[in-house]
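Hello again, I could really use a second opinion on something today. I owe you a coffee for this, so here goes:
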Amino acid sequence: MTLNYIWIALFIIGMIVGAIRLCVLGDTETLPSMMDATFDMSNLAFEITLGLTGMLTFWMGLLKIGEDSGMVDRLARFLSPVLTKLFPDIPKDHPALGAIFMNISANLLGLDNAATPMGLKAMQELQSINPTKDTASNPMIMFLVMNTAGLTLIPVSIMAYRSKAGAADPTDIFVPLLLVTATSVTLGVIACAISQRINLLKPALLAMFLGIAALIGGLFWVMSGMDNSQVQSFSRVLTSCLILGTIATFVLYGFFRKVNVFDSFVEGAKGGFKVAVTLIPYVVAILAAIGVFKASGALDWLLEGIKYLVGLCGINSDFTDALPVALLKPLNGSGARGMMLEIMSSQGPDSFAGHLASMFQGSTDTTFYILSIYFGSVGIKKFRNSVGLGLLADLFGFVAAILFAYYFFH
């Protein structure tokens, strides 16, 4: 499956809804809004991609030092017993394993700026062993699902937004959100493993899952006696230490391995700039279609339809107030973030909707953005079942967010 059908569907549905609003409802503002949204989102896409350039060049340069010094190879050999079970099509000791691990680690710790370049590097390595260059391979799809599910140990950005919105305890979503992301990743990986016929009941994989559980438990133990300000301070310091420690480790390891770290960094940084330029048309295309779909009112109609159906089923519909965040998250991360802030502003950060909106925002990553960025960077045109599996991981996350929000905050 490609994004072609989804891209066309977003445009066509948006156009149909816009025409209905004009011809039936007499709304003369919808079509101009759709036109403005097309150009505004195209400009936003360019700004987003341009904003990635500095980050990409820096981290790709750092990863080049890791390659030239042999650090990535050592990391790959260390992790191969675990990751080769989850990615059986990747040869043992291949550099892709090291890049995948670094991307997953950055996502675990909420280091978005570091995760994206490392994910792009992993995609490049995976493409190097992909037998069909225009089609997503099984390891690429598994890697995508793990990214869209977005397991995060410390949701630093969500806690910061809640603090700024005046939440009484910005960290109260820490435990629920950790449970939500753990659920979405676990179920997403299981669904992908079933589709690829991967046996997850192997000692190495079970040890990895137990290790993650131990890490989560240790984090709980360390932060259990802290108050709100201490938790936020601890999170910021931990994040800073991890990023700066990673940078220092790569540079010093390269230096002691007698690598010209400056030349190596510059060479890798050149590749990062090329990747950023390559991404522009892919991001512009998907965000423009999303802009038309949202500005047409199709998203609002979809929400009203969901609320109506929920009411018919006799189910508590309080969760529908936060649904715009869930519906926007797979399409547009900044749009979902803006909707979360609007819900916290209008209903309060400590309301049920405010809590659930925060959990929706942190529960998964932006699926179509990741598809455009990661697959676009290596020229993948045929996505196979990656879209369906990515959205399934999103669905797992959103359902878990609703259930845990009712349990903790309702």
Q: What stands out?
A: The mean pLDDT is 80. The longest helix spans residues 30-69. The radius of gyration is 22 Å. The CA atoms of residues 69 and 258 lie 8 Å apart.
